[in-house]
Design brief:
Radius of gyration: 21 Å
Helix content: 10-25%
Strand content: 25-35%
Order of helices and strands: EHEEEHEHEEEEEHHEEEHEHEE
Number of strands: 16
Distance between the termini: 15 Å
Structural class: alpha+beta
Shape: elongated
CATH topology of the largest domain: Aminopeptidase
CATH superfamily of the largest domain: Gcn5-related N-acetyltransferase (GNAT)
Length: about 300
């Protein structure tokens, strides 16, 4: 394991290629995040990465105040290759990133935007959550801060966002926020549950993790999905449905992204059944197995 620290202008083409390849492999390919990975901030960053005999294995970038956040210096693009997530590379690159930022800018607060499942990882380095959950590039995140001001909240609202078509919505989780009659209404429009009795739908909800979508201005649920899991090895994604009037707004993709990023499902194998949505689920790492059956290998969290 070898640590490297360089400013953008000092990177060789080979080093830049290795860094960008790992970022694309993790953020774009593995996490199925279809957002611009090259965001014009690399030129202003200090790049910190780890190599071994297999190439670049862990990375982050350090940013001056005003680049990522108007008030704080920041650390971003933190990642470890899938093959080295149990080898301590993530801890090592974070420790070095904090050291580099402090040595360069002084003992200042440090800001980052953490994927929800990694909150505990960053907590080990003194980062505290300062926002409610929000969607960034289709993935749930928290804003986190280390140092002075880390006990302050930015006052974010409950989980809410805007879909690709400009539709404002909120995702809810749990039976207390989902009306069974709304779910019955939605599922009765599907090919797989149109004949399912209401009492069976309600019973299935009581024994599942349930998720719903509400659109601003609409009193009733416009999207639903549920997960059945042992929380140890496998989860089954079922009954994913978006109201016909809201299809094409990106709500289905957002709901699936949100569910798959929940910390309680990270590290679990995923399975589902579908007749006509293979293309959608393939974007999230599911592979066709036999007919309607699809599965996704467990994606391990950062170490």
């Amino acid at each position: 394991m070898e640590l490297h620290v360089k400013k953008f202008q000092d990177l060789t083409p080979e080093e830049m290629y290795g860094i960008l390849k790992l970022r694309v492999d993790v953020f774009v390919v593995e996490q199925h995040c279809l957002a611009p990975e090259l965001d014009d901030r690399d030129q202003e960053a200090i790049h910190v990465w780890i190599t071994d005999e297999d190439g670049v294995q862990a990375y982050l970038r350090v940013l001056d105040k005003g680049v990522e956040h108007e008030k704080y210096h920041a650390i971003g693009r933190v990642l470890t290759s899938e093959a080295k997530r149990s080898a301590g590379y993530g801890r090592a690159v974070m420790e070095e990133g904090i050291r580099v930022l402090t040595e360069t800018y002084g003992d200042v607060p440090i800001y980052l935007e953490a994927q929800t499942y990694a909150e505990g990882f960053y907590g080990k380095f003194g980062f505290k959550k300062i926002s409610d959950e929000f969607i960034l590039d289709g993935i749930p995140h928290y804003k986190m801060l280390r140092g002075v001001g880390a006990d302050e909240s930015e006052g974010a609202s409950a989980f809410a966002c805007e879909a690709s078509a400009g539709v404002k919505f909120r995702i809810v989780e749990g039976l207390s926020q989902i009306q069974a009659e709304d779910v019955v209404r939605l599922l009765k429009t599907t090919y797989w549950a149109s004949q399912r009795p209401a009492e069976k739908i309600e019973k299935s909800m009581r024994h599942s993790d349930c998720f719903g979508i509400y659109v601003d201005g609409e009193p009733h649920l416009v999207g639903f999905a549920r997960v059945i899991t042992d929380y140890a090895t496998t989860f089954y994604l079922a009954d994913v449905i978006i109201d016909e009037s809201q299809r094409g707004n990106g709500l289905g993709k957002t709901l699936v992204s949100y569910i798959l990023a929940r910390p309680k499902y990270v590290g679990l194998r995923g399975i589902l059944l579908t007749k006509d949505a293979h293309g959608l689920y393939e974007k999230y790492g599911f592979e066709r197995q036999d007919g309607r059956f699809m599965s996704r290998s467990a994606i391990q969290p950062q170490d």
